[in-house]
Design a protein that fits this description.
Structural class: alpha/beta
Number of strands: 11
CATH topology of the largest domain: TIM Barrel
Distance between the termini: 30 Å
Radius of gyration: 20 Å
Oligomer: single chain
Order of helices and strands: EEEHEEHHEHHEHHEHEHEHEHHHHH
Shape: globular
Strand content: 5-15%
Length: 344
């Protein structure tokens, strides 16, 4: 599968953008685990055009994570165009590798975004969505532009089949579809039938990437086999479980499933993640922002409450590494139940 001239290989599995999760340290881990492409956290177009330092910093990417997409969101056409131009210049403005792809977020359902008409809130205004997309494609001719969106606003307005054609016709080079409406948020099961309908529409010629409820290697394989999508995107199931990309890739390539990862190996991965976070963000932010990840690495582990509390409250770097070593020593051969890994 290619996005522009970027070759992601056969049946690629990509990492979804997730606010407060997919920072550079996590993206690097997922790439090392087999993710074919990663995407930054959501970057506010308003924040970029106002030159907000924290927003610009979200565009900083590293060579180790390429290919990487910088994802922007917003509802004001002029700001979105300006933000896309800035995303295309991410290496110059934020340092690092920059953006290989400019991705437009028309899919985020949270109220603070969709309620302002951005993200999946744009599903209420498809004409405006298409106009913004066309303007961005024209504004960044040297970068492939992609879109991530949903089936529609609610069950009575599932417009994705027609909308996909319109977005393709204004020049996007790949489309990712989450199999829920905005009103569903993340509830219920993702409906892949319309994703498959978009993919099998003879008018469509750009890659279609499916997203929603891919929380195991088997589900990933079923999505490819049943719906014929060009690629899939993994979101929440990767949180605390970045090795899901290794599991999926192994099944797709060999037809065999890998055994679950034991605690000793999870500790090694958590330590690698923690060190990356420290290197990139320093000891204060690096410690603070790893807390949400630590809990998920060991979710479902028996008799873990007291250790978990220590792990997510201490501020001392050496003590955290010591706690991780103690986890490996005590629970190293164990494997938490599947609901512990995927229970998000």
């Amino acid at each position: 599968m290619k996005i522009g001239n970027i070759d992601l290989g056969n049946r690629p599995v990509t990492l979804a953008p997730m606010e407060d999760v997919t920072d550079a340290s996590f993206r690097i881990l997922c790439r090392e685990a087999g993710a074919a492409m990663v995407t930054t956290e959501f970057v506010s177009s308003d924040g970029l055009v106002r030159d907000v330092e924290k927003t610009i910093a979200k565009m900083r990417t590293l060579e180790e994570e390429a290919p990487v997409a910088v994802q922007i969101y917003g509802s004001i056409p002029e700001a979105m165009v300006d933000a896309a131009k800035m995303a295309a210049r991410a290496a110059e403005l934020a340092g690092g590798h920059g953006a290989d792809i400019v991705d437009i977020n028309f899919g985020c359902p949270v109220s603070k975004i969709a309620g302002r008409g951005a993200g999946s809130g744009m599903m209420k205004e498809p004409d405006k969505m298409v106009a913004i997309t066309e303007a961005i494609v024209r504004a960044v001719p040297d970068k492939p532009v992609t879109v991530k969106t949903r089936l529609g606003w609610d069950d009575n307005s599932k417009i994705i089949v027609e909308l996909a054609e319109r977005l393709q016709d204004v020049g996007i080079q790949a489309l990712t579809i989450h199999g829920r409406t905005r009103c569903q948020m993340y509830k219920g099961e993702a409906d892949w039938t319309l994703i498959g309908e978009v993919k099998n529409n003879p008018r469509m010629h750009i890659p279609i990437i499916g997203n929603g409820d891919i929380n195991s290697a088997q589900k990933a394989k079923e999505a490819f086999d049943r719906y014929g999508v060009d690629g899939i995107m993994v979101g929440r199931a990767s949180f605390g479980h970045p090795w899901i990309f290794t599991e999926i890739r192994h099944l797709l390539d060999t037809g065999e499933e890998l055994p679950p990862m034991n605690i000793k190996d999870r500790v090694a991965l958590a330590k690698r993640h923690f060190q990356l976070s420290l290197n990139l963000k320093g000891p204060v932010t690096g410690v603070y922002e790893m807390r949400r990840h630590f809990s998920c690495y060991f979710k479902g582990l028996r008799d873990f409450k007291e250790t978990r509390i220590k792990l997510v409250t201490t501020k001392d770097v050496d003590e955290i590494f010591s706690i991780l070593d103690s986890i490996a020593a005590r629970w190293g051969a164990e494997t938490p139940p599947a609901e512990g890994v995927y229970g998000l």
